[in-house]
Write a structure and sequence with these properties.
This protein is an all-beta fold. It has strands at residues 10-18, 25-30, 42-47, 52-57, 64-70, 78-83, 89-94, 98-105, 108-116, 122-127, 133-138, 142-149, 153-161, 167-172, 179-183, 188-193, 199-205, 218-221, 228-231, 246-251, 257-261, 266-272, 281-288, 296-301, 308-313, 318-325. The radius of gyration is 19 Å and the shape is globular. It comes from Linum tenue.
Length: 328
């Protein structure tokens, strides 16, 4: 069905609630190498309970089950988790100031490397497209770039200083080795490597450049990598839809933006074909009230199945959803 058909009606169907974490769930990540014709989808989630859980959907029952609990490595909240593009490694960032690298060895997840250097809480971690670089960011206001070496070794390539407050998130461009970081200082900084191998800030996106007038919480790119969506208390072009802080935003392959916020709701936006508006404009496709009992910390589209979404919340649960056409 055409997303831009104003007569199209959608509903968000809850497929399953995944329970097991004993504290708020901060982040989740779909394994990009799973969910294809011959493999079932796998999700990693991380929590204030200091653990990471690995969830897999059963081919037989289509039900999601917890396959592993990664514990006794981080000593404080695990704030961020992300799979490498090949799906072989999982990186987890923690308030204990470390980033752990996990590898699935014969069905058993092992911590194969621990990255140390940040002064305090690590808030986010991101792999580049070629899996040769890893970025981390922290409350210490710095962004670190790590070079991935043979044998699961990681070498610090650069410490990027420029933000004046807590750095909330790092995100690599989907195709180029350009890094984006967003911060409590209300800016997004764009970092790139010069010909001599040094990393520099090549652009700062702030309020003066149609940026944000409050904390920038998250960044997501469209599939082509030529558009970026960011979120704060109100998304600039989508102002007025959320009553509370927006914590997460994610762009699907077919161009649907999902957002999760402190008002416990999940919303979906699509580009509007309004010829009267100069440049792209977006309209609200669907709002799901009370998607969770508490703040929605993260929304992530499945990389393998169209219109399947996972969300996680302060209520300690992960939910799997399908954005379906309403048949009524």
């Amino acid at each position: 069905m055409d997303l831009n058909d104003e007569g199209s009606h959608f509903e968000l169907k809850e497929i399953q609630t995944l329970s097991g974490h004993t504290d708020r769930v901060w982040s989740l990540a779909w394994n990009p190498a799973t969910g294809t014709d011959d493999t079932q989808p796998v999700i990693a989630s991380c929590s204030g309970d200091k653990t990471v859980r690995i969830w897999e959907r059963s081919a037989l029952t289509r039900s999601w089950d917890c396959k592993a609990v990664l514990e006794e490595t981080h000593t404080r909240t695990v704030r961020s988790c992300t799979w490498s593009p090949s799906g072989k490694l999982l990186a987890t960032a923690s308030f204990d100031a470390t980033t752990a690298i996990w590898e699935n060895v014969g069905g058993d997840f092992q911590c194969v490397s621990t990255l140390e250097g940040h002064e305090n809480e690590v808030k986010s971690v991101s792999w580049n497209a070629s899996e040769s670089l890893l970025a981390t960011c922290s409350r210490d206001k710095t962004v670190w770039i790590w070079e991935v070496m043979p044998g699961n070794e990681f070498e610090c390539a650069s410490v990027l200083q420029g933000h004046t407050q807590d750095v909330k998130m790092v995100k690599w461009h989907p195709t180029m080795d350009i890094l984006f970081s967003c911060s409590y200082d209300n800016t997004i900084k764009v970092w790139a490597e010069d010909d001599t191998g040094d990393w520099h800030c090549i652009q700062t996106i702030g309020e003066s450049s149609n940026g944000h007038s409050s904390t920038v919480w998250a960044i997501s790119f469209n599939a082509e990598g030529n558009k970026m969506v960011t979120c704060r208390k109100h998304i600039s072009t989508l102002t007025g839809y959320h009553d509370r802080t927006i914590f997460s935003v994610h762009w699907s392959r077919e161009g649907i933006i999902a957002s999760g916020a402190a008002d416990d709701a999940i919303r979906f936006f699509v580009e509007s074909k309004d010829s009267a508006v100069v440049g792209p404009s977006y309209r609200l496709l669907l709002k799901k009230e009370k998607a969770h009992d508490m703040d929605v910390n993260v929304v992530q589209w499945s990389p393998g199945e169209n219109r399947v979404l996972a969300s996680a919340s302060d209520d300690g649960t992960i939910k799997i959803w399908e954005l379906a056409t309403n048949s009524t």
